[in-house]
Amino acid sequence: MSEYSTETLKRKLADAIRMMEQAGHIDFNGHFSVRIPQTEFILINSSAASRCTLTEEDIITIDFHGNIISGAGKPPNEYPLHIQIYKRRLDVNAIAHTHPQWSTLFTIAKVPLRPVIIQGAVLGTTPVFSKSYSISNFDIADELAEQLGDHHVALLKAHGAVITGNTIVETFVRSVFLEENAYRQYMAGQIGDAHSLEDEEISSMVKFIWQANNIQKVWDYHHSKLKK
Predict the structure, then answer these.
(1) Does the model's pTM come out above 0.85?
(2) How many structural domains comprise the chain?
(3) Count of Cβ atoms closer than 10 Å to residue 158 Cβ
(4) Which partner from 26, 31, 179, 193 sits 20 to 30 angstroms from 76, CA to CA?
(5) Per-residue DSSP letters for 54-79?
(6) CA 131 centroid distance within chain
(7) b (16+ CB within 10 A) / e for 64-80
(8) Average pLDDT over all residues of the chain
(9) Do the domain assignments include residue 107?
(10) Nearest Cα to Cα of residue 79 among 92, 94, 91, 62
(11) Distance of CA 193 to the CA centre of its chain
């Protein structure tokens, strides 16, 4: 991400948040952050900004203690979620906390979410954080970060999801794949058994799907649909 200026990251993050709202992954709540390269600062949307009309002016900079460095407004209450993951995961540079409809259903029903389509293969194992509380203090955020471990996605019981990536684009695309897989698993379950992909299929599909051109294609599709 070193090729991106802070202002470019702000614009890209604002676009990603509006795209997530339009796709139904977040609503009046939900937040998305990105690490400013080679610093202990992150960019994150202000808590009060409407997710559907958010611009780079609504992106603020905070440090790893939650102090506001620049920008107007306050960070979301759950900012510790982002900070504790960044501290543990140097490979993670972008984090989204979403409230997705379909994948959250599986945590409420206590049904394991499994890879049932090829896009689901790239998600890996999705641990479920057993506490449905707001992740708004550093103690519970640290518990979540520990359970996330080296996974890219974790579900929060009756709450939502945490999605990580090396870039804003990767994180957004994983969110898309998470909801698409959950929707297909739910709908297949209304007909009969929703069968998982076989291990060999998962291994093959990860290599096929998770390539830069495919990731960018998903981003470009949703970006083209942004409300003008």
Answers:
(1) yes
(2) 1
(3) 12
(4) 179
(5) --GGGEEEEETT--EEESSS---TTH
(6) 18
(7) beeeeeebeeebbebbb
(8) 95
(9) yes
(10) 62
(11) 28
Q: Please count the other Cβ atoms lying within 10 Å of the Cβ belonging to residue 181.
A: 25
Contact by Cβ (8 Å): 103, 112: no
Percent of the chain predicted with pLDDT > 70 = 98
Of 87, 96, 14, which is closest to residue 55 (Cα–Cα)? 14
Tell me the residue range of the domain where 132 lies: 6-224
pLDDT tens-digit map of 50-71: 999 999 999 999 999 999 999 9
What 3-state DSSP class applies to 94? Answer: strand
- Secondary structure element (H or E) that encloses residue 133, with its range: none
Q: What would the pLDDT profile of 83-101 be if each residue is shown by its tens digit?
A: 999 999 999 999 999 999 9
Long-range CB pairs of 216-225 (<8 Å, 24+ gap) are 216/169, 218/172, 218/173, 218/176, 218/177, 219/169, 219/172, 219/173, 222/19, 222/22, 222/23, 222/172, 222/176, 223/15, 223/19, 225/19, 225/22
> Could you give the C-alpha distances from 64 to 35, 75, 81, 122, 201, in angstroms and in order?
10, 12, 11, 30, 40
Q: Is the pLDDT of residue 227 over 90?
A: no
Please state, in angstroms and rounded to a whole number, the distance separating the CA atoms of residues 14 and 162. 18
Q: Is 117 among the domain residues?
A: yes
1 in a domain, yes or no? Answer: no
145 to each of 6, 17, 135, 139, how far by Cα in Å?
Answer: 26, 22, 10, 10
| CATH assignment at residue 182 | 3.40.225.10
